[in-house]
Design brief:
alpha+beta, Translation Initiation Factor IF3, four-stranded mixed sheet, 2 helices, 4 strands
Amino acid sequence: MKTETTLDVRQVPPPQRHPLIFQTFEALQPGEAFVLVNDHDPKPLYYQFRFEREGQFTWDYLEEGPEVWQVRIGKTMNGGSVS
């Protein structure tokens, strides 16, 4: 999976984080990924991805705190829109 960019949301107001992350994910081509940098474990985001994008994403922790978390989030090859 090719990592295209890093998205650091630590300075983004919390209500804007998930919409920005999903916007970044939607802009990926299948097989691409980005690295999310956060100030806490983004486990709730993982559950949201599982609920809304089951089978369309990959999730790999690169760093697990205690101050910084990094997760590579990728779009699977079948990660296109579901109609």
